[in-house]
Write a structure and sequence with these properties.
Helix content: 10-25%
Number of strands: 26
Largest sheet: 6 strands, mixed
Radius of gyration: 30 Å
Shape: elongated
Length: about 400
Amino acid sequence: MSDSCVTPRTPLVEYDEAIRLLLEQATPVEVTETVTLGDAAGRVLAGQVTSPVNVPPLDNSAMDGYAVRSADVEAGKPLPVSQRIPAGAVGAPLDIGTCARIFTGAPLPPGADAVIMQELATEHPDNSVSFKSKPPQGDNIRKAGEDIRAGDVILQPGTGIEPQHLGLAASVGVSELAVYRRLKVATFFSGDEIVEPGSPLGEGQIYNSNQYHLNALLQRFGCDVVNLGIVEDSLESTRATILEGARRADLIVTSGGVSVGEEDHVRIGIEELGTISMWRLKIKPGKPLVLGHVEGTPIIGLPGNPVSAFVTCLLFVRPFLLKMQGLIEVLPASYPVKADFTWTRPGIRREFLRAQVRNEDGETLAAIYPHQGSGVLSSTCWADGLVVVPEETTVARGDRVQFIPFRELL
């Protein structure tokens, strides 16, 4: 983007276009490594996982009861119990006219074609049992391979590894997984007015809250954070820190210094050292966000206001990072809820309102925080997620609005 394109007169970038540009420039990491199942949670799968075995490996009992030949069973007629088969044991072939005591997960003995649950059996002192009715063939039997067949692909590359994926891999005997390497993200925070918590505040100073919630978000997204700390409001310091981040990390995320003020040096530093491909979004909060590259390293400059930084990190940094990590699905899901508020001032920008949902009479209602200012960080703790109000739109109480829960973004 040329110098003439990055001025305050530049048309604001629509939300959907911003997402498209971001994802277009998020290059997935190529380096992979192999880790044990115990170390794979939260990583991104880099290759297909194929099952070497059938699951279950043999026909087995779906419950505690008695394995029978269905043809041998008559209501009320006792059958002698010829053997006992616990899980992990293999029974002998079932003799005609007998049954076998069997437990959940135990392999079905050859000759048996049904299992009768123990609650439907009557035990007799002579080690025989009778049943209330004849079972259909196949009753209460889990067939070999009914869950997974040997050779089936059970996990696809680009999957974010959750606990259930680890259980599935373990169930077929896989002990290691190929994953993409973890990303390094360098962060710094611009402003002479910000100081570290624990220090006394001088006149006009504020505590550096952004460092703590942004770094924690990046760690939540599965990244290793290189924290470069607070950078003074000077172009020289900003340039030096950008270059350090570009050489040490896969992505740089900054907060502050991206607007149009005389002390906003981050955008200027990016422009002088590299290229800017996007600046100023048609959203609220978060308009001044900037995307660029320095020495081949992408850099996303977030606004300095705490809520703006928090929201734009969730909406833009998160999908950018997830795609860099190799994930396929990177955008959050949303669902319609009923507005328990009114919004009478339509804006030219798409708005993301901090909202809290509740269920009432089977309906999900969303209320918004009464103070939606970009400095009201307490609203992010009160809220469950974000209500989306499109451009040039008003909302009446009872209207349907889209809601993005924080659980989708975190």
